[in-house]
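=== Structure Prediction Worksheet ===
Name of assembly: unnamed complex
Input type: mixed (protein and possibly other molecules)
Chain count: two
Listed entries:
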Amino acid sequence: MTTTELPFPGLSGVPTTEDKLTGKDFTSDQEVRWCPGCGDYAVLKAVQSFLPDLGLRRENIVFVSGIGCSSRFPYYLETYGMHSIHGRAPAIATGIATSREDLSVWVVTGDGDALSIGGNHLIHAMRRNVNLKILLFNNRIYGLTKGQYSPTSEPGKVTKSTPAGSVDHPFNPVSLALGAEGTFVARTVDSDRKHLTSVLSAAAAHRGTALVEIYQNCPIFNDGAFDAIKQPDTKADAIIPLVQGEPIRFGVPQEDGKGSKGIVRSASGGVEVVQTADVAESDLLVHDAHADDPSTAFALSRLTDAGVLHQSPIGIFRQVQRPTYDDQAREQIVTASAGQGDQRQALASLISGGDTWTVV
Amino acid sequence: MAKQVKQLDRVIIRFAGDSGDGMQLTGDRFTQESAAFGNDLMTLPNFPAEIRAPQGTLPGVSSFQVHFADHDILTAGDSPDVLVAMNPAALKANLPDMKPGTSLIVDSHDFTARNLTKAGYADNPLEDSSLADYALSVVDLTGMTVEAVKEFGLSRKDAARAKNMFALGLLSWMYGRPIETTLAFLEKRFAKAPDIRDANLTAFKAGWNFGETTETFAVQYEIKPAPMSAGTYRNITGNLALAYGLVAGGVQSGLPIFLGTYPITPASDILHELSKHKRFGITTFQAEDEIAGIGAALGASFAGSLGVTSTSGPGIALKSETIGLAVMTELPLLVIDVQRGGPSTGLPTKTEQADLLQAMFGRNGEAPVPIVAPQSPGDCFDAAVEAIRIAVTYRTPVMLLSDGYLANGSEPWRIPELDELPEIDPAFATGTNHESVDKEGNAKPDFWPYLRDEETLARPWAIPGTAGLEHRIGGLEKGDGHGNISYDPGNHDYMVRIRQAKVDRIADSLPPLEVDDPSGKAKVLVLGWGSTYGPIGAACRRVRKAGYDVAQVHLRHLNPFPKDLGEILKQYDAVMVPEMNLGQLSLLIRAKYLVDVVGYNHVRGLPLKAAELAESITDLISTTTGTLDHDVHQEEVAR
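=== Predicted Assembly ===
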């Protein structure tokens, strides 16, 4: 896991508090209404217990969501929040983040909300690098509308709307984010509290748009979609852990305790899975999320199964610094306002500018 | 040679040429000169949607009409007295608007066989007798321009491009315009290209001298300044006035303006203008689409700015869902619709008023939105400030309906004093407003985001960063007061009604309508809204000048209607509603007041014509009162 640099640059400008807050302080009085066993509970708990660690004033945190099961999230947090309309949360959050430097702005969205109806806003938020933390709950299904296939569902998926199997090709959210110039792109899993929290910390620390894809199980409409990475007997082969500065290895551990499989650069310019026994240790790809060129991160993202999930890299794919839209927009206003006098005076001279004449 | 000087009370000139000929600039400069001289004026730019349509063709013709007078005028005029045509296509496209006896000044240079064919002329109209009914002046404007600027060594093409300045110089001489503003303008505009600057200055002066010294034009005209009420004036377009109104609304409310928008004709100038005024704390966000534009604006409003979005009809269609969210979340938001011809892409550069019902009803559910409309270019300033007052005071999205004619048209505008502007108080919530009982039965102070102000029915606006007021809002139905999600049937019924009641409550803050009925004897009322104010006013003047009585009322507020409108409507035997649509205000008036109004509807992409409207008003007066003393159609009356 990448270590986060403190103080968190992503939160500079947001007022902190000396009060020791707890998860309870971030829990609203509203009853949580997700289905029993929903992965959203785990993420909510993780967020509620992680937020106090940021040391921020509760009133300076805003959660914005779109429409979908996960988008009920803001109601359960005792912060400011808006449960908006389908797909538009990144746009609304962009207005909040750009107009207020002193707010920590989070977007909660799902695979349908972010990648289907709201795809445009998602990619443009990442391109602009607005200081937003986007939590993309990916359950590979439409839950709130009761079980249609989503833009991340595997080809051939049989659902209510695809009785003969889906013929849609899915998005890979990480590939999409990297293609959209995302500066922080990560993937984690609802059931791995430790990994989830560490990725959220790194996202909070990042200045700019952080996209975190969270594999999230829908027990009602797509149960077991991520079993390969959750079951003890398969997870070693399914999870490709991305750890900054470490050779990428996975698979059932060998005698030396290290995974039997690894990632190397392929002749075609991408990356491929090999048996570590067949290559030298030095041939293994050392993960570097800080590389400015996103090509390797993209190549790694392609190791994710588009169909039924058997293998997926987990961790931070990309973490680079680029000026943010909101910082620069505010800077332009600060520059234009510097040394300027009274606004009413300025308004009077603005409206009486140009060619004028006086009638007495 | 001393030339004859003839007095006129008003003149309408139309400059027409290829869209690359600089006709908009020429018209704009002539307008500035006329404004500086002190005439009253109105302008009507008219240009194709294509940036550069094929040269020399009819679709490529661009024109700029300016009406200036020694008295107060209300429209850019129905048909020109003078047409300046820079090529055959410009002549052909505009000739149908010219009445016999009017003047044509035609640049003969481009009347070649090829260009005549392009414009669809079989024969050269300058050489046959087809223009015999007009006062035709054929001048080689281009040839003389090229000759005049040859010392600057420009290419022939660049030299010829100064022909619009030659034409401007000639017309400036003809109508005794002061030339200083244009000289100063050219110095500044081309400061970085001295040869171009000098060519334009020289062409402009050559045009003036051509009028002054040759015998081609024997008469010079004088149009005296118009009496205007005291004050400092400037010429202003609707989009500029609207942008200034937004700046003023921001200053008056103390709220930072956040414009989230996507470029669209004819609204983009509002973005261009506001983006220059960051020193007022204004953020302009050019979004990825219309939806993101309004979304970001609403987000900014949630965070304590005044969110504004600007667009035209097709953009409103895309923003509808977010407007509904703003209705539900009861946040201040200004939605500007600079209407253009529709449906769909329609006529992007032409004017229309056909978005009224979209503004009124174009959302799912019962989603009332206040509507404000400016009536002239300069009035866009006041309308913007008024829309902001309503949005902030009542915590609601407000629709501001401008149109293409107001946006690009211009008029002299009396610059307001700042103390004439209303104070707008955002009155952010700063503390708890309710006492709740916790699980242990203890009273504790609480913040209820949907607890309303008794007078305005507005909810409190608590912005992030305010400790203790953390709350969640959204598009799901709110419980009365506490604002948490509620599916209770009775609550929904109540909330639907209270949202409507809040918008209705705005009427309490509106001044009484002004009824213009000079004789007090009118039986017929003409009711309008938006940019038809000028043509309706001019038509009513004609009707009165012909000896009839007619009353005029013009609506700034379309939702809610002013409280006295119903009473006023009852006082007349007949009500005519002229609109640039198929009867949208008519529909609303009929529905609300059960008054069988008579529509007057044109959707030609151009402002209504005062003379035609006057005939229809007179016909209605005749059928209503059963009298027809003399025929107004034949009257020579002032427009």
